[in-house]
Amino acid sequence: MIRYKKLGYVELNVTDLARSRDFYERMVGLEFVGEGAQGEALLRCDADHHNLVLHRAARPGLKRIGWMLEDEAQFERLHGRLAAHGVAWREVAAEECRRRQLGRVTRMVEPDSGVTFEFYRPAETRPYEFRPSVARIQRLGHAVIRTAHFHAVTQFLREVLNFAESDAIGEAIAFFRCFPNPYHHGFGVGNAAQNGWHHVNFMVTEIDDIGRALHRLRGAEVPIVYGPGRHPASGSVFLYWLDPDGMTVEYSFGMERFPEHAPRAPRTLPPGPEFFDSWGSRPDPRMASRGELERAAL
Questions:
Q1: Fewer CB within a 10 Å sphere, N or C end of the chain?
Q2: pLDDT, average across residues 197-226
Protein backbone atom coordinates (compact mmCIF):
# COMPACT_ATOMS: atom_id res chain seq x y z
CA MET A 1 0.00 0.00 0.00
CA ILE A 2 1.56 3.28 -1.14
CA ARG A 3 1.62 5.99 1.53
CA TYR A 4 1.85 9.70 0.75
CA LYS A 5 2.75 12.81 2.68
CA LYS A 6 0.94 15.41 0.58
CA LEU A 7 0.51 17.21 -2.70
CA GLY A 8 3.92 18.86 -2.94
CA TYR A 9 4.06 20.96 -6.09
CA VAL A 10 2.21 21.99 -9.23
CA GLU A 11 4.10 23.11 -12.34
CA LEU A 12 2.27 25.30 -14.85
CA ASN A 13 3.02 26.38 -18.39
CA VAL A 14 2.42 30.12 -18.93
CA THR A 15 2.80 32.30 -22.00
CA ASP A 16 4.39 35.34 -20.32
CA LEU A 17 6.63 34.28 -17.44
CA ALA A 18 7.29 37.73 -15.99
CA ARG A 19 3.60 38.62 -16.05
CA SER A 20 2.55 35.36 -14.40
CA ARG A 21 5.26 35.53 -11.77
CA ASP A 22 4.11 39.03 -10.84
CA PHE A 23 0.49 37.87 -10.67
CA TYR A 24 1.16 34.87 -8.43
CA GLU A 25 3.23 37.05 -6.12
CA ARG A 26 1.06 40.17 -5.92
CA MET A 27 -2.45 38.80 -6.44
CA VAL A 28 -2.18 35.26 -5.05
CA GLY A 29 0.45 35.90 -2.36
CA LEU A 30 3.14 33.33 -3.09
CA GLU A 31 6.78 34.05 -2.28
CA PHE A 32 9.32 34.04 -5.10
CA VAL A 33 12.18 31.63 -4.34
CA GLY A 34 14.34 32.01 -7.42
CA GLU A 35 14.86 30.87 -10.99
CA GLY A 36 15.45 27.30 -12.07
CA ALA A 37 18.15 26.12 -14.44
CA GLN A 38 15.96 26.76 -17.50
CA GLY A 39 14.64 30.11 -16.31
CA GLU A 40 11.48 28.78 -14.69
CA ALA A 41 10.13 30.69 -11.68
CA LEU A 42 9.93 28.87 -8.34
CA LEU A 43 7.49 30.07 -5.67
CA ARG A 44 6.49 28.79 -2.25
CA CYS A 45 3.45 28.98 0.00
CA ASP A 46 4.55 26.81 2.94
CA ALA A 47 7.70 25.38 4.54
CA ASP A 48 8.85 23.51 1.40
CA HIS A 49 11.53 24.81 -0.93
CA HIS A 50 8.84 25.49 -3.55
CA ASN A 51 5.23 24.56 -4.29
CA LEU A 52 4.53 26.24 -7.63
CA VAL A 53 6.77 26.36 -10.70
CA LEU A 54 6.01 28.52 -13.74
CA HIS A 55 7.47 27.57 -17.14
CA ARG A 56 7.43 29.72 -20.27
CA ALA A 57 5.50 27.93 -23.04
CA ALA A 58 3.55 28.63 -26.20
CA ARG A 59 0.27 27.43 -24.66
CA PRO A 60 -0.89 27.58 -21.04
CA GLY A 61 -1.69 24.53 -18.97
CA LEU A 62 -0.41 21.93 -16.55
CA LYS A 63 3.12 20.62 -16.96
CA ARG A 64 3.14 18.15 -14.04
CA ILE A 65 2.07 17.48 -10.47
CA GLY A 66 4.36 16.29 -7.67
CA TRP A 67 3.23 13.99 -4.84
CA MET A 68 5.50 13.75 -1.80
CA LEU A 69 5.85 10.17 -0.61
CA GLU A 70 5.87 9.39 3.10
CA ASP A 71 9.38 7.90 3.03
CA GLU A 72 11.93 6.19 0.78
CA ALA A 73 10.29 2.78 1.23
CA GLN A 74 7.30 3.97 -0.80
CA PHE A 75 9.27 4.00 -4.06
CA GLU A 76 9.49 0.21 -4.11
CA ARG A 77 5.75 -0.07 -3.46
CA LEU A 78 4.97 2.51 -6.15
CA HIS A 79 7.19 0.85 -8.74
CA GLY A 80 5.65 -2.53 -7.96
CA ARG A 81 2.11 -1.24 -8.40
CA LEU A 82 2.93 0.49 -11.69
CA ALA A 83 4.73 -2.56 -13.07
CA ALA A 84 1.89 -4.87 -12.02
CA HIS A 85 -0.56 -2.77 -14.04
CA GLY A 86 1.70 -2.34 -17.05
CA VAL A 87 2.21 1.39 -16.53
CA ALA A 88 5.41 2.91 -17.88
CA TRP A 89 7.55 4.90 -15.45
CA ARG A 90 11.11 6.04 -15.01
CA GLU A 91 13.32 7.43 -12.32
CA VAL A 92 14.38 11.00 -13.04
CA ALA A 93 18.15 11.41 -13.41
CA ALA A 94 19.98 12.59 -10.31
CA GLU A 95 21.31 15.67 -12.12
CA GLU A 96 17.81 16.82 -13.07
CA CYS A 97 16.65 16.24 -9.49
CA ARG A 98 19.54 18.35 -8.21
CA ARG A 99 18.76 21.18 -10.64
CA ARG A 100 15.14 21.16 -9.54
CA GLN A 101 15.94 21.18 -5.81
CA LEU A 102 14.39 17.71 -5.32
CA GLY A 103 15.66 14.44 -3.92
CA ARG A 104 14.60 11.20 -5.59
CA VAL A 105 11.83 11.39 -8.24
CA THR A 106 9.79 8.83 -10.21
CA ARG A 107 7.78 10.09 -13.20
CA MET A 108 4.79 8.48 -14.92
CA VAL A 109 1.86 9.50 -17.10
CA GLU A 110 -1.69 8.54 -16.15
CA PRO A 111 -2.76 6.49 -19.18
CA ASP A 112 -6.18 7.98 -19.96
CA SER A 113 -6.01 11.64 -18.94
CA GLY A 114 -2.39 12.13 -19.98
CA VAL A 115 -1.56 14.04 -16.79
CA THR A 116 2.10 13.76 -15.75
CA PHE A 117 2.62 12.71 -12.13
CA GLU A 118 5.90 12.79 -10.23
CA PHE A 119 6.42 11.01 -6.91
CA TYR A 120 9.28 12.34 -4.87
CA ARG A 121 11.11 12.86 -1.66
CA PRO A 122 12.54 16.31 -0.89
CA ALA A 123 16.24 17.01 -1.24
CA GLU A 124 16.33 18.07 2.39
CA THR A 125 13.84 17.95 5.22
CA ARG A 126 14.67 21.22 6.98
CA PRO A 127 11.74 23.66 6.88
CA TYR A 128 11.95 26.89 4.96
CA GLU A 129 10.30 30.08 6.16
CA PHE A 130 7.34 31.21 4.08
CA ARG A 131 6.73 34.94 4.44
CA PRO A 132 3.03 35.71 3.81
CA SER A 133 2.16 38.90 1.98
CA VAL A 134 -1.37 39.61 0.74
CA ALA A 135 -2.81 36.37 2.19
CA ARG A 136 -1.91 33.98 4.99
CA ILE A 137 -1.69 30.90 2.78
CA GLN A 138 -1.37 27.66 4.74
CA ARG A 139 -0.49 25.23 1.99
CA LEU A 140 -0.90 24.12 -1.57
CA GLY A 141 -4.37 22.61 -1.30
CA HIS A 142 -5.29 20.59 -4.35
CA ALA A 143 -5.14 20.23 -8.11
CA VAL A 144 -8.03 19.30 -10.39
CA ILE A 145 -8.03 18.06 -13.98
CA ARG A 146 -10.86 17.50 -16.42
CA THR A 147 -11.01 14.35 -18.52
CA ALA A 148 -13.12 12.57 -21.12
CA HIS A 149 -12.21 9.27 -19.41
CA PHE A 150 -13.73 9.89 -16.00
CA HIS A 151 -14.34 6.29 -14.92
CA ALA A 152 -10.99 4.97 -16.15
CA VAL A 153 -9.04 7.76 -14.41
CA THR A 154 -10.86 7.44 -11.10
CA GLN A 155 -10.38 3.67 -11.19
CA PHE A 156 -6.65 4.15 -11.81
CA LEU A 157 -6.33 6.49 -8.84
CA ARG A 158 -8.09 4.05 -6.52
CA GLU A 159 -6.65 0.76 -7.68
CA VAL A 160 -3.12 1.64 -8.77
CA LEU A 161 -2.05 4.74 -6.83
CA ASN A 162 -3.96 4.03 -3.58
CA PHE A 163 -5.76 7.37 -3.56
CA ALA A 164 -8.81 7.34 -1.30
CA GLU A 165 -12.07 8.68 -2.70
CA SER A 166 -13.78 11.07 -0.31
CA ASP A 167 -16.85 12.11 -2.29
CA ALA A 168 -18.29 12.55 -5.76
CA ILE A 169 -21.00 14.85 -7.10
CA GLY A 170 -22.95 12.59 -9.41
CA GLU A 171 -20.61 11.76 -12.27
CA ALA A 172 -19.54 15.40 -12.62
CA ILE A 173 -16.52 15.38 -10.33
CA ALA A 174 -14.76 13.06 -7.88
CA PHE A 175 -12.54 14.09 -4.95
CA PHE A 176 -9.54 12.08 -3.76
CA ARG A 177 -7.07 12.32 -0.89
CA CYS A 178 -3.55 10.92 -1.19
CA PHE A 179 -3.71 8.34 1.60
CA PRO A 180 -3.15 8.82 4.51
CA ASN A 181 -3.16 12.63 4.11
CA PRO A 182 -6.27 13.70 6.05
CA TYR A 183 -7.59 16.56 3.92
CA HIS A 184 -10.82 15.88 2.03
CA HIS A 185 -9.09 16.14 -1.31
CA GLY A 186 -5.69 16.81 -2.76
CA PHE A 187 -6.79 15.85 -6.26
CA GLY A 188 -10.02 16.15 -8.20
CA VAL A 189 -11.21 14.65 -11.46
CA GLY A 190 -13.85 16.51 -13.46
CA ASN A 191 -15.92 14.78 -16.13
CA ALA A 192 -15.55 16.71 -19.39
CA ALA A 193 -15.70 16.41 -23.16
CA GLN A 194 -11.91 16.46 -23.44
CA ASN A 195 -8.82 16.22 -21.27
CA GLY A 196 -7.53 19.46 -19.79
CA TRP A 197 -6.47 21.48 -16.78
CA HIS A 198 -9.15 22.58 -14.30
CA HIS A 199 -7.62 24.59 -11.42
CA VAL A 200 -5.04 24.89 -8.65
CA ASN A 201 -6.06 25.61 -5.05
CA PHE A 202 -4.33 27.35 -2.15
CA MET A 203 -5.72 26.88 1.36
CA VAL A 204 -5.75 30.06 3.45
CA THR A 205 -5.62 30.53 7.22
CA GLU A 206 -8.59 32.84 7.80
CA ILE A 207 -11.95 33.44 6.17
CA ASP A 208 -10.83 37.09 6.07
CA ASP A 209 -8.29 36.04 3.42
CA ILE A 210 -11.26 35.21 1.18
CA GLY A 211 -12.90 38.58 1.78
CA ARG A 212 -9.71 40.55 1.26
CA ALA A 213 -8.98 38.64 -1.93
CA LEU A 214 -12.43 39.44 -3.29
CA HIS A 215 -11.79 43.19 -3.02
CA ARG A 216 -8.13 42.96 -4.06
CA LEU A 217 -9.02 41.08 -7.23
CA ARG A 218 -11.94 43.34 -8.08
CA GLY A 219 -9.73 46.39 -7.60
CA ALA A 220 -7.23 44.96 -10.08
CA GLU A 221 -10.02 43.97 -12.52
CA VAL A 222 -9.13 40.29 -12.25
CA PRO A 223 -12.05 38.12 -13.46
CA ILE A 224 -13.77 36.37 -10.53
CA VAL A 225 -15.49 33.29 -11.95
CA TYR A 226 -17.13 31.58 -8.95
CA GLY A 227 -18.00 32.51 -5.41
CA PRO A 228 -17.55 33.36 -2.72
CA GLY A 229 -19.45 30.28 -1.65
CA ARG A 230 -19.25 27.03 0.31
CA HIS A 231 -18.69 23.55 -1.13
CA PRO A 232 -21.01 21.08 0.66
CA ALA A 233 -18.76 18.09 -0.08
CA SER A 234 -15.64 19.38 1.70
CA GLY A 235 -17.17 22.18 3.79
CA SER A 236 -14.71 24.67 2.29
CA VAL A 237 -15.46 28.35 1.72
CA PHE A 238 -14.15 29.20 -1.74
CA LEU A 239 -13.32 31.87 -4.29
CA TYR A 240 -12.19 31.24 -7.88
CA TRP A 241 -10.59 33.67 -10.34
CA LEU A 242 -8.53 33.69 -13.54
CA ASP A 243 -4.80 34.17 -13.91
CA PRO A 244 -3.32 36.18 -16.84
CA ASP A 245 -3.58 33.16 -19.18
CA GLY A 246 -7.21 32.53 -18.22
CA MET A 247 -6.37 29.52 -16.05
CA THR A 248 -8.36 29.11 -12.85
CA VAL A 249 -7.01 29.69 -9.34
CA GLU A 250 -8.86 29.03 -6.07
CA TYR A 251 -8.56 30.08 -2.45
CA SER A 252 -10.34 27.92 0.11
CA PHE A 253 -10.79 28.17 3.86
CA GLY A 254 -11.57 25.14 5.99
CA MET A 255 -11.86 21.51 4.89
CA GLU A 256 -13.06 18.21 6.33
CA ARG A 257 -10.27 15.99 7.65
CA PHE A 258 -10.38 12.19 7.65
CA PRO A 259 -8.78 9.87 10.22
CA GLU A 260 -6.42 7.27 8.81
CA HIS A 261 -8.35 4.45 10.45
CA ALA A 262 -12.11 3.92 10.15
CA PRO A 263 -12.88 6.99 8.02
CA ARG A 264 -16.43 7.59 6.90
CA ALA A 265 -17.51 6.03 3.62
CA PRO A 266 -17.34 8.13 0.46
CA ARG A 267 -20.61 9.75 -0.63
CA THR A 268 -22.15 10.37 -4.01
CA LEU A 269 -23.99 13.69 -3.77
CA PRO A 270 -26.72 14.68 -6.25
CA PRO A 271 -25.43 16.69 -9.23
CA GLY A 272 -27.56 19.77 -8.55
CA PRO A 273 -25.98 23.25 -8.30
CA GLU A 274 -26.71 23.43 -4.56
CA PHE A 275 -24.26 20.55 -4.04
CA PHE A 276 -21.50 22.59 -5.67
CA ASP A 277 -22.28 25.75 -3.67
CA SER A 278 -24.70 25.83 -0.75
CA TRP A 279 -24.65 29.66 -0.84
CA GLY A 280 -26.17 29.75 -4.30
CA SER A 281 -23.52 31.29 -6.56
CA ARG A 282 -23.12 30.02 -10.12
CA PRO A 283 -19.84 29.58 -12.03
CA ASP A 284 -18.86 31.82 -14.91
CA PRO A 285 -18.48 29.77 -18.14
CA ARG A 286 -14.82 30.81 -18.29
CA MET A 287 -14.06 28.85 -15.12
CA ALA A 288 -11.75 25.86 -15.77
CA SER A 289 -12.00 26.38 -19.54
CA ARG A 290 -8.31 27.11 -20.23
CA GLY A 291 -5.26 24.93 -19.92
CA GLU A 292 -3.81 21.88 -21.66
CA LEU A 293 -2.17 18.86 -20.07
CA GLU A 294 1.46 18.40 -21.12
CA ARG A 295 2.15 14.70 -21.56
CA ALA A 296 5.72 13.85 -20.59
CA ALA A 297 7.85 11.62 -22.80
CA LEU A 298 9.14 8.70 -20.73
A1: N
A2: 98
